[in-house]
Inverse folding.
């Protein structure tokens, strides 16, 4: 081993694959950090998994990003955990996408936020599902908005509830509409109030009716007018009884006339006096004829003079005698 330690960087580069592979573990571990970092990418790629697993902590730290980029998935998987955790963000960034796919679930579970933050968007997208779900919530917090956007629909839909709830508001708002569409109903239900507030109108628009229906009532009532405006007519028609009754007057007033018309007869029958009195004159005039007939008497009595004046001839004609008496005492 003493003789080996005397090899210069130039001499190290001259070693053939056969020569490198013939080194015993003892000999390989005797190489100093300078000698290790002198190995070419091709030489590193020729190392056996046994040699990779035997790397000392010092030798591991000496590996360059270029050397790491040459490693196969099998070599990456051979890294001992205690050494893998010592890789710097710059070193990990050197791994190829194949190398990233070579990570074991145990290795993935040991990644820290600083290491995750250093990964490229290509590496993020290359993370195997089994590895992704093993990332700690702390590690996930290291993802930048750009990295979040790089996650595939499959990756996002497989995040555990705990992982999903650990995402910051900034990370949630970074999701593209397509990514938002991939969220499972369980993930939607698990959203915190803060995360719900971070969702954009575009994200809401992209969601399916099942996703919208999965929003917890406590979160639904916290939606802003801007978010409410992102709902499509199809989504409005899928709102649950609990969601409709929880709508504030301000939220309902944010509905477009198309969304007012999208309300089902059953949904309209649930509207309270305070909700109805918050409607604009344009919204009043947009209520469909069959829906007018189910508006409660108390709600009609609460209408303002301006709202009553906005009722169309057809709407008035559809009302029952009791309803007419409520709007024209």
């Amino acid at each position: 081993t003493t003789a080996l330690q005397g090899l210069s960087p130039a001499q190290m580069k001259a070693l053939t694959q056969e020569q490198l592979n013939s080194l015993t573990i003892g000999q390989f571990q005797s190489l100093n950090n300078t000698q290790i970092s002198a190995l070419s990418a091709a030489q590193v790629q020729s190392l056996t998994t046994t040699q990779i697993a035997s790397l000392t902590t010092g030798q591991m730290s000496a590996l360059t990003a270029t050397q790491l980029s040459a490693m196969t998935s099998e070599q990456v998987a051979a890294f001992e955990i205690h050494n893998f955790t010592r890789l710097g963000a710059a070193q990990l960034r050197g791994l190829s996408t194949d190398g990233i796919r070579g990570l074991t679930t145990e290795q993935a579970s040991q990644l820290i936020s600083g290491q995750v933050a250093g990964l490229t968007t290509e590496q993020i997208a290359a993370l195997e599902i089994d590895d992704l779900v093993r990332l700690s919530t702390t590690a996930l917090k290291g993802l930048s908005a750009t990295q979040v956007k790089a996650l595939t629909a499959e990756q996002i839909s497989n995040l555990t509830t705990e992982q999903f709830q650990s995402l910051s508001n900034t990370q949630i708002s970074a999701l593209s509409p397509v990514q938002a569409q991939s969220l499972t109903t369980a993930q939607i239900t698990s959203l915190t109030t803060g995360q719900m507030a971070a969702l954009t109108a575009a994200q809401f628009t992209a969601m399916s009716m099942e996703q919208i229906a999965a929003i917890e009532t406590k979160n639904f009532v916290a939606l802003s007018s801007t978010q409410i405006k992102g709902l499509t007519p199809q989504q409005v028609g899928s709102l649950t009884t609990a969601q409709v009754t929880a709508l504030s007057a301000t939220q309902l007033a944010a509905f477009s006339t198309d969304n007012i018309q999208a309300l089902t007869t059953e949904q309209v029958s649930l509207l309270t006096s305070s909700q109805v009195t918050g409607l604009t004159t344009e919204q009043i005039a947009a209520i469909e004829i069959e829906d007018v007939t189910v508006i409660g008497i108390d709600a009609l009595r609460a209408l303002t003079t301006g709202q009553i004046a906005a009722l169309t001839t057809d709407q008035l004609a559809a009302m029952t005698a009791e309803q007419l008496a409520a709007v024209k005492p």
